[in-house]
Batch of 2 targets.
Target 1
Amino acid sequence: MSFSAAKWRDHFPLLAAHPELHYLDNAATGQLCEAAFDAVTHHDLTHRANVLRGTYRLAEQADAAYENARRQVAAYMNAANAEEVVFTAGTTAAINLVAHAFGEGLKAGDEVVLSLAEHHSNFVPWQMLRDRCGVMLRILPLAAGGRLDLSRLGETITPRCKLVAVTHASNVTGAITDLAPVVAAAHAVGARVLADGAQAVQHGPVDVQALGVDFYAFSGHKAFGPTGVGVLWGRAEALEKLPPFLGGGGMIGRVTMEETTWALPPRRFEAGTPPIAQAIGLGAALDWLRAQPWADMNANMVRLAQRLIDGIAVLRGLTFLGPRDLKNRLPIVSFNLEGIHPHDACQVLDEYGVAVRGGHHCAQPLMEFFKVQGAVRASIAPYNDEADIDALLAGLQVAIARLR
Amino acid sequence: MSDDLYQQALLDLAKAAHGAGVLPSPDGEALRDSPLCGDRVRMQVVLEAGCIKAIAHDVKGCLLCRAAASLVGLRGAGLNAEEANTLHEQVAATLAGSEPPPGWPELALFAPVRPHRNRHGCILLPFETLAAALDSQTRA
């Protein structure tokens, strides 16, 4: 195996500066890679200007860098065209964009299908749409282990369905959704498919054309890029049909006192000054990630996840949230220990330099499915190694001794 | 003073669970959730002349939240609605660095939590719920 987690870690300035840190909260935020850091710094030091409006050379350089970032994102996602890439503030903003713009064409009685495994970001915007215009939400149930129960697609996606919005990979269970049957069932009734890719893109390039979905959303900060930037990818013909969500500068064709016409996508959906430096940083991060040895890296992460799962399996009172096997599954390991609140466990783990997340993970319906209030979640990235897993397991033993 | 968040006296306070349970005929009741972690506190009170005569609480929460609720059960009798609201503010001030208010020396057990701002809500939740339980009776 040519991949070295230790060498990969050297590409992350914060981790290089803190070798004692066992950072296992990557599903919340990945650390910033130096490619992104360098690109943001370089841009702000040499090309900082607003985009898509200036005629001076500095502004043209900023335009070029921003549009290059769009092409870098498109390449990572295998988008047919860079114009299918809309920069947003993150996954939440991207999903809200679709909920408003696509939702504007829906009426009472139309149906939107979600799954029980969704992050609140792919739940609440649709509940708000339901409350605004009376669409009905139908929920695809889960099978044991928390995977989407695809055997129930036929009864959940009806001819009234206009959109299916589901996770590409759960932020709690790590389960990867087999999107092909979802897309087939949705398209069979003329519905669009939105995939929440917030957890997926940091585990290797995605191919939106092969996935067959119509919209795909993700965040920069989970993909080792800057915070405050994300992406909505939309199939060109799907984006062209959408009205704008936010109004303002940059998204218009022409404004008169009587009416305003809209710019073509993606600028139709990028009202105001976009997160320019952040987008450039994200483009650089994805460009760097695209060249990484993903097969080796994913194999290493699966091995670490198995080491963790084996380590916690012997703990008394364990509730495991997710599939036990690691097939079609990300290295996200969520669990609960009877008698120990996740926040207390995480607080003690922090004393041992282990950064993990505890709580409901913005997935309270999924917590109800597993009959827990919350969980401890360790989410593994390519820069993690055996020492990180072993520190977590040792810290858990201390937490159990102190808190039970 | 210990700087250990989970010092033995705090664990003992949480374990004692003073006031845990249900009142058959409460005069006031409130339910509050923590949006951060999903913790939930139900607080019930029986009043006499506007002051707490009995308290019961049901807590689904962390050790800090359970210790705070236990402290409410231990020291809360006799408070009226205004005093409960003031107490909630005083606990917040204590977490910000002030001395505990008179009559509540056990609040010093939470001093190690001061630098951990995301945990302040765990401690404040039972006090907020107590004030809401009294307020619910005032409005009834």
Target 2
Amino acid sequence: MISRASLLLLLAVTLSALPAAAQQGVSDTEIVIGGSNSFSGPLAFTGDQITKFGVDLYVRVINDAGGIHGRKIRTVYYDDGYRPQDAVANTKKLVEQDKVFAIIIPQGSPPVVATLDYLEENKVPLLFPYQSSPVTRGKRYVLQGMTLSDRSSKMMIDYLAGQRKIKKFAALYQDDEYGKSFLTAFEKDLARFGLKLVGAESVKRGVMDVSAQVAKLQAAKPEVTFLVLVPGPGAQALKERQKIGWTDTLMVSTGPLTDERYLALAGDAAEGVEGLSLWPDPVTSDLPGVKLYREHMQRYFPKNEPNRYSIAGYFAGMLFAEGAKRAGRALTRESLLAALESFKGFESGILPPITIGPDHETQKQGFWVRVEKGRFKQLTDWLKSE
Amino acid sequence: MTGQALVHVVVSGLATGSIYALMAISLVIIYNATRTLNFAQGEMLMISTFVGWTAWQVLHAPLVVALAVAVVAAALLGFVLERVVIRHAISATHFDVLIITLGLSLMLRSAAGVTWTHDEFPFPSFFSNRPVVAGPIRVAPISLGIIGASLALMVALGALFRWTRLGRAMRAVAQNQRAARLMGISVERVYSSSWIIASVVGAVAGVLIAPVIFLSSKMGLVAINGFTAAVLGGFGSMPGAVVGGMLLGVLENLAPLYLPASIKHSVPFLVMITILIVRPGGLLGRVARRKV
Amino acid sequence: MRHAALATVAAVVVGWPWAAPRYFVFLASLIAINAIVAIGLNLLSGYTNQLSFGHAGFLAIGAYAAAILTIRAPALPVPATLLLAGLVTAAVGLALGVPCLRLEGLYLAMATLAFGFVVVEAILNLEWLTRGNDGLRVPAARIGPWILATDTARYYLVVAVAALLIVAAVNLSRTKTGRALLAVRESEIAAQASGVNLAAYKTLAFVVSAFYTGVAGGLFALVVGFLSPDSFDVFLSVDFVAMIIVGGLGSILGSVVGAAVITALNDSLAGFQNYRPLIFGAILVTSMLFMPGGIASALRKIPGAGARPPR
């Protein structure tokens, strides 16, 4: 039916051409931020935690206290299932249709990198992407989130090779951007000490069995074996190590892996494992900001357990809110950036005082931990990565 | 690479392979009876295992209760899905049913995420993780346990098909549906039974493998390997499913040992393509060689 | 009446960027790209019944080929880049299609599934060419002095190519070759008995299907602007299969409609986050239950509907 089809099309076109909302995502009453994230696919749990129980938790707190200069924050998220092309589509939708003011905490290197050019071209701030590859550096409108892999690596190698004089290192790494960026960083940092990796085995995401890779690494006899994995395979590696009775290596987890989920999955196979921790213990830490975080979680989402993912999102929300506050009532993208760049020694109560320089990196530190009786015990102070 | 390490890696591969074999068997059971591929097999396994786990947690009961509840949940799920959804579509083309099972798999996975979140959970095992050393051989009881339990289940299934009336009816329908109906066999009953049995096999596989790969909404992806195993061994054949599964598991483990990083992940697929080119019916399949 | 319908469609397509917001121009480009893949896949699966679960692999080859050409040979005009991308993919299609001639149904499906995985692995390993995991930024395409830097410009390129390929497909289906392909679908033995050279036509279907998908891949690279192995997983291949089955096997219109429906649906559900796969799956299930044979079959049942039957 021609007429029916044409009518429907006309209707669709008219509806989509309705008058646009406030220009930059800032109206008299609200600020709109959002992002494309994983709500399905391999990283769905993380995606949920950093947005709905992370950023949104802090947003609830702020909104209940009256908002920022009289404006409430509203968040919009779309699912990309870790697919870069979906991330591109979602991000365009957020900027062009939802008219967001800024993009906050998108997850994963491929989906994030796919949107970098578009966001820079359109001068949209990309705040605290949840990924560790240094490839997002050097963009005017990007503020980094978690400690990047090259900084992590520097801290880890300086501590192990420099302070503890360890010489033989191996790595079990995931066959993706996360794994590869750490591997490259390790090799570079080891070279500064005149060392090389004695073994490196890759693991595909979603792998069923890591026995071959672990056996090969055991044959290389490393003193330290880095685990550059996500919690599932990371725990599998530890259990595999227990299965073959390989006791004379120290397993060391990278920042993104050093979390309680991985401990829960590995059970007693995790005893004695060490790693670089990027956050204070979200469940037991007495730091004022962490306690507040737990209180807020208990108040708004009592069924959700505190964990490092939601605290990362909560922290991102905190930084954004503080930046928006400092920018004042006349909030623009430029004034937000300027405000964020003005952070000097900002006390969050969670991490050491934050100073954001021209490198736009918000997190540059970690501290060493060892697993004792199923929890991470702090071994060092905050390590420096400069 | 010491001999001991090699044995361990191979046994570990046989353990994963047993699970692939069970998955392959489930797929073949449904295919043989209804000529449809069940894309949702993995997700059904995942849901059953989750239900069993929830019961175990809530009731503080021994682990065997988790298994029992998982099996019952699986039977129920298989029965309901077949009756309510698949039965209505069976008259349509097979491709339609394919999309329906695809849709079901998406729904089940999402529902699991909503109910239990997409987090990963440790799952207790009947067998220990600590190695057992017997002379030059060191193996982990959990690998042996998975292999043993899977073999036991396969033997039980074999007996079912050989010696029970239902089993004979299922074989008849697999051979020739029309003739079976003419002989008075209730084809609908066979459909139901095959979905129930396949689902139960999946539940057992799930309870066996969850301690190793952890319980999560994405656990069902193991079914993809089940497909590969079934085709490798010769789709439609039970022994083929077993051989294909074991072979795939061992191949996946040996590849990283001996091959360079660049091709080790592709090896199972390259092997499958090669085998299909040389023997289009799979390793043990009936070679209906097409003269094209 | 059919000409009037076509004219309306043409008018809407041409006028779309003037009426629709920018995002929907981008979305329309994606729909057109998926439609090209769907037509290509349909040619293989709907006509000659060789169901493929590896078309994301062909898409990837076309995409990377076009991207690498755009980067390394920027002087090459876009039509040439797309053509080359299509040809490269077609060559791979030939290499895959010939050994697969002896495979049928399920076995072929698995072989194509394996192919999809192997392609992604190859992309990861040929790091010097594809930048592996880091991903590949695709610079803007150019036709002569014009740089296609806006969504609208790229949209017109995509629909122009899509229109060309759709017309070609329709013509193909009306020729002796097309009829032969259809005959193969209905019954291979009967087709052979009537003198159809089975091997040749099945191979041809593979090659043409790969060509179409390769060209679509090139367009994908230009429209999305960034390629990474994560873009081309098995679930994308399954999405394409869903498009042709929901649209209706063996129907070119079905392929286009199926692609539009699945793409638009996926897009509109993105805001449902966790519930997205649940709703999408439910829609798939109910639509197949109530429209057996896909949308094209359902349309055919409406008397007077302008849908072209596949025969």
